[in-house]
Amino acid sequence: MIPAYWEQATQELAGRDEMMHKLIQRFAGAALRSHGDAFTTLARSIIGQQISIKAAESVWQKLATAVPAITPATVLGTDNSVLRACGLSLRKVTYLQDLSRHFISGTLNETAWKEVDDEALIAELTQVKGIGRWTAEMFLIFHMLRPNVLPLDDLGLQRAISLHYNASQPVSRLKMRAIAKPWQPWCSVATWYLWRSLDPLPVEY
């Protein structure tokens, strides 16, 4: 599912920012898509922490083979050694199990999320072990399709802003915010195009 706002967002970004105009033209026809359910998206985000997109995809495929129907119940019911054999660290196994428990107990309440603003939803998600702000922001972008998320801690976004807007020099959070000001209220869209500029494979969770 492509966000309903995508066409409007790309037109406005292209009109305000020359680099965005170039990237939107370069990746014409491509768009952010929402995949899977909330649990799958969060599980993929946890698996993707601190490893490359390619490595994360490899681990996910191994997990999908070992646990054919990935749900909170099946993850909790799978032996640690099987999960470890998929390439998961012990810490990530613990995180996935804690995530599963939150879904099974109902402490993560999906039905209320549509009414909750970005910061309140990030606060709820970060109560789960292994879900920090970055993982919550990935969830907001890729599952909730929130249009205006700027993940300042994302290394890919930092690298792309440095490359395209700061002569490849390191960029501070303050400067990132200043550069991103014209992207409002479409920071998620701008971030997605900047990710694509580094890796032509679409970033997905």
State the major sheet: none
- Give me the count of strands: 0
- Structural class, by secondary structure, is mainly alpha
The span between the termini is 13 Å
Low-confidence stretches: none
Summed over residues and divided by their number, the pLDDT gives a mean of 93
- Counting copies of identical and different chains, the oligomeric state is single chain
Strand content: under 5%
Task: Indicate the percent of residues in helices.
Answer: 55-70%
Order of helices and strands: HHHHHHHHHHHH
Radius of gyration from the alpha-carbon trace, in angstroms: 18 Å
Number of helices: 12
Q: Overall 3D geometry?
A: globular
Produce the secondary structure layout:
Layout: H1 6-16, H2 18-26, H3 38-47, H4 53-66, H5 72-76, H6 80-85, H7 90-105, H8 118-125, H9 133-142, H10 155-165, H11 173-180, H12 187-198
Helix pairs in contact: 1-2, 3-7, 3-9, 8-9, 10-12
Walkthrough of the structure:
- It is a single chain.
- The protein is mainly α and about 200 residues long.
- Helix content is about 60%, strand content about 0%.
- It has 12 helices and no strands.
- It has helices at about 5-15, 20-25, 40-45, 55-65, 70-75, 80-85, 90-105, 120-125, 135-140, 155-165, 175-180, 185-200.
- The mean pLDDT is about 95.
Quick summary:
This protein is mainly alpha-helical and 205 residues long.
Question: Which features does this protein show?
Answer:
about 200 residues; mainly alpha
